[in-house]
Amino acid sequence: MKRALATSAIALMIGIGAAHAKDIKIVMVQDLTGILAPYAKASVNGFNIGLDYATDGTRTINGNKIELSVRDNQGKPDVGKAQITAAYADDKADIAVGPVSSAVALAMVPVAAEYKKILLIDQSTATSVMGDKANRYVFRSQFNSDQDSAATAAIMDKPDTSIAVS
Question: Is the pLDDT of residue 69 over 60?
Answer without folding.
Answer: yes
